[in-house]
Amino acid sequence: MSKPSLKSVGPVAVPSLPTSIAQVGTITKYELLNYFRSRRFFVLLIIGIVISAIFTAVVGYYGITYLNLTSALGFYSFWWGNSITLVVILSGIFFGGDAISGEFQNKTGYFLVGNPLRRSSIYIGKWIAALTASLIIFAIYAAIAVGNGIYYFGTSIPYQFGDSLVFSVLYLVAVLGFTFFFSSLFKSSSMSILVTAILFLFAFSLIELIVSRLAQIEPWFIITYGAGIIGNVLMDPYPLTQSTRGPGGREVSTFAVSIPQGIAILVGYFVITAVIGLLLFERKEFT
Amino acid sequence: MSVPSIEAVNLSKRYGSFSALSNLNLKIEGSKCVGFLGPNGAGKTTTLKLFTDMIRATEGKALINGVSVHENKKKALAPVGSLIESPEIYPALTPREALSMVAEIRGMPRSERKRKIEKVVAEVKMEEWLDKKVGKFSKGMKQRINISAALLSEPEILLLDEPSTGLDPRGMSEVREIVKSLKQKNRLIFMSSHLLNEVSDICDEVAMIDHGKLLVYDKLSNVVSRFSGADGGAIIIDVGLSREIDDQTVSGTISSFPGVVSAEKLEGKNLRLHFSGGIENQEKLLSDLVMMKIGLISFHPSSSALEDTYLNLIKATL
User: Fold this and answer.
1) Residue B271 is part of which domain span?
2) B31, A107: Cβ pair inside 8 Å?
3) Is there a single domain that holds both residue B158 and residue B66?
4) In chain B, how many domains are there?
């Protein structure tokens, strides 16, 4: 193969690039801007406000005595314990479901990956943006719950509600780690959203039920079991695993996740799925 | 003194038993425009994707300025602007925001961003759309923004995958002018295209690929003279003039220049020469035409010559 002659030109100027952390910040900033401009953020915000409105209306209509919400702890358990996991799961589906797969299906990834930045910066930047957008919804939802709590029970908010808030954020972190991992598995947005929705809305709860009730095995490997600490911490006393004699003298256990166990499950889910999801994205090809 | 370079070293890409790219060895250095030609599925886009780390090589390395793209992507792609497969931009963002994102990723100082963004957007004639959401844009408009994103950091090296895709004829012409202007600014441009007239018009060199294998890489004129096969190796040269020329000069003087097989007047003020005589005689021919003071304004192998070359080379590998 003949080699064409070389023209002489000036020295190649190598541009100085920002650090990878700064590039993560850039991705986060524009991903958030994209969220705020798109409908999905406002749809989820409206869903959160509607759920809050339903609780406000129910409590207002029936009254705390009729609902047997005689203490502040009982009130927060009723409101927060019964609904925050749904808000967290919806955040995971809305912001994480197609976060990575959408880059392939919609070809937006082609705009980014040809630039001098690591793929991990894209992944982490998008994850932080999803977490930030979710936390905004989460904060509004929490503010409405606290507002109602203060209205009925005054400003003395039980410390367990603070614990539950922290555990909810931990659950959100784990759910987003998991949804990003699933999003990295697929190149189709609708497929990754659908699978994530089915898993969190039905499959995990069903598996947890089957494993704990029928097989009588503690479902420590299910993320939704770990998330049980969000509601459990709002109960007084904190529920414990109990064994009773069922029909035919068979021992039947009702499992309750402890706080250390729940934290370990949620942290474990986040760490494992975040690492695998990142590795998958690093290796995935824009074919 | 270093020059911009891209190099494929034994670069291969396989998908199962299908070989998309086979043992490509190609080194391009210096400021020039190289057209990358081949039929659909030949391996052009695969090569460009390997140079931007969109896919991983099965074997071999893609080097930019001597740096492995896969092993040190940030450093390798720092001097590179690329446009691969008509990317989509987040539909909720405006061109200004999308380009700001690229500018920030590339570390462009804040003080320069606004001016540079407005400059590249003006270059692709999209000033009026700078603050409108991309989601409402046509394919051609998005492609213009993609081109401006590739140009934004004034990169030393441009990797372009069919940059005219989706553009109307005016847009195609504008892209050609942009690439030509970049050539004046000491850039290395590696551009795949199906438009042979585009390559013929813009590029100094061509690389042809088929079935994942490099067929030839050389200066455009050399490739055409070696492989066009017409008239015993003759090539067609289109000559543009600024004024009319009389028939006597064409059939008498010009036809008698060394290497000129035949000369004919075309519509307007153009000439078409069938030429057979190697690169030295071609240089002499150009010099003779200039000396004639006939108003010579352009001189290049015609796209039909490149087309002949292309078809001959590609046919040979079927």
Assistant:
1) 228-316
2) no
3) yes
4) 2
B residues 200-219 closer than 8 Å to A (CB): 204-205, 214, 216-219
Answer for the pair A95, A134: CB distance below 8 angstroms, yes or no.
yes
B81: left (phi over 0), alpha (psi -120 to 50) or beta: beta
Record: contact B55-A285, CB cut-off 8 A: yes
Cβ burial A185-208 (10 Å sphere, 16+ → b, else e): bbbebebbbebbbebbeeebeebb
- By C-alpha distance, the chain A residue nearest B67 is A14
pLDDT in 10s for each residue of chain A, 287 residues: 434 444 444 444 555 899 999 999 999 999 999 999 888 899 999 999 999 999 999 999 998 888 888 889 999 999 998 899 999 999 999 999 889 999 999 899 999 999 999 999 999 999 999 999 999 999 999 999 999 999 999 888 999 999 999 999 999 999 999 999 999 998 888 888 899 899 999 999 999 989 988 888 889 999 999 999 999 999 988 988 888 887 777 778 888 899 999 999 999 999 999 999 999 999 999 98
- Is residue A156 in a domain? yes
Is the domain of B201 the same as that of B71? yes
Tell me if A110 sits within 8 A of B54, measured CB to CB.
Answer: yes
Report if residue A26 sits inside a domain.
Answer: no
Strands of the B260-265 sheet, one edge to the other: B260-265, B270-275, B235-241, B296-301
| Contact assessment for residue B114 and residue B95, using Cβ atoms and an 8 Å cutoff | no
Which chain A residues contact residue B82 at CB under 8 A?
Answer: 114
Q: Which residues of B touch A34 (CB under 8 A)?
A: 90, 92-93
Of B205, B221, B237, the last residue of a domain is: B221
Residues 123-162 of B with CB under 8 A from A: 133, 146, 149, 153, 156, 159
- Examine residue A19 and state whether it is found in any structural domain, yes or no: no
What's the rounded Cα separation, in Å, for the pair A101 and A98?
A: 5
Which chain A positions have a beta carbon within 8 Å of B221's beta carbon? none
B149, B240: one domain: no
Long-range contacts formed by B263-269: CB under 8 A, 24+ apart: B266/B238, B269/B240, B269/B241, B269/B242, B269/B243, B269/B244, B269/B245, B269/B295
ipTM of predicted assembly, 2 dp: 0.85
* C-alpha–C-alpha distance, residues A222 and A171, integer Å: 12
Chain B residues within 8 A of A12 when measuring between CB atoms: 2-4, 65, 79, 156
- If asked whether residues B302 and B157 sit together in one domain, one would say no
Report the number of distinct structural domains present in chain A.
Answer: 1
Our CA-based measurement puts residue B101 at a distance from the nearest CA of chain A, in whole angstroms, of 7
The type of residue at B307 is E
Regarding whether B133 and B79 lie in a shared domain, the answer is: yes
Tens-place pLDDT, residues B95-141: 999 999 999 999 999 999 999 999 999 988 899 999 999 998 988 89
